[in-house]
Design goal:
By secondary structure, the protein is an alpha+beta fold. Helices cover about 35% and strands about 15% of the residues. The longest helix has 20 residues, at about 55-75. The chain is elongated and about 60 Å long.
């Protein structure tokens, strides 16, 4: 529901079809009513048939591979998998792919080039500033952490402190 509203607000486009693998994500009256109210078709594949979802299954495998590589690059803890997947999807949507050799998925949806100047390397060392009211004069002004969020559109990045 959030995604449908986000697309409508940000792009003035309307979601016409949602495709799913017949999983439980949409197996409830709230989702069904929402889709019916919006006039959105729900296209379901046969259960337990990955073959019928070939393209999206390959994309999911690629995203998992990206996330696994991100986690392993800096020996990040495995429980940060959701942040790694989020970062992988964020980067994936800003890369050229086989669908279009001239426009990224981001450009196709939002009709503008993405700003990539804020991107940082997932899992790299980052330093969290410790505000002066939380330290005394001779204590460190920052704490060594791990960067776990590439999005940072507000220039605030999420950090993981392995010592906490």
């Amino acid at each position: 529901m959030d995604y449908v509203n986000f697309i409508a607000t940000q792009t003035s486009a309307k979601v016409k079809v949602i495709k799913s693998d017949n999983g439980r994500e949409f197996a409830n009256s709230v989702s069904t009513n929402f889709l019916e109210q919006k006039g959105i078709m729900h296209d379901r594949s046969a259960p337990y048939t990955l073959q019928s979802n070939g393209k999206i299954e390959r994309h999911i495998r690629t995203i998992k591979d990206y996330a696994r590589s991100m986690l392993n690059r800096f020996n990040s803890p495995q429980f940060l998998w959701a942040e790694a997947v989020n970062a992988a999807v964020y980067v994936w949507n800003r890369m050229l792919n086989q669908t279009s050799e001239t426009k990224t998925p981001f450009e196709q949806v939002f009709r503008r080039k993405p700003n990539l100047s804020h991107l940082k390397v997932f899992g790299c060392v980052a330093y969290a500033h410790i505000h002066e009211q939380f330290r005394n004069t001779f204590e460190c002004k920052s704490r060594k952490c791990v960067l776990v969020d590439l999005v940072g559109s507000s220039q605030n990045f999420r950090l993981y402190d392995p010592n906490l």
